[in-house]
Amino acid sequence: MLTDIRPDREGFNPAGAYRLAPEVVAMALPFARQHDALDHGSQVLTFDGSIETRVRPAGSDVWQDLGPTIAMAIYRRRLVPAVALSRQDGLIFATKIPPEMMAPGHRRVIVYDPAAYFELTLT
Q: What value does the CA radius of gyration of the chain take, rounded to a whole number of Å?
């Protein structure tokens, strides 16, 4: 198992640092397909972690503090280092998850969580 998951200076974790639960792969494949982020497409799907997230709902002046979150994002392939590309069940992806988000004992798996703001969390 990969033990050094520290991100590079651009924030990308090395390939294999995190795995995806099957339901996350199922959720991510259509998103990746829609954005030309499959196999040799021009884009790459990423799972971006943030230690602190704030949002302001549409039509509101009130900010909400969400705490740590993980969200799917799309990057131009040329901006993602090859050593950061993971492959799992037909999906190519990268992760940008700060090590501070991992509690001791976590399995480094991104899972579906309907209660989470972006429906993703770490286990």
A: 14
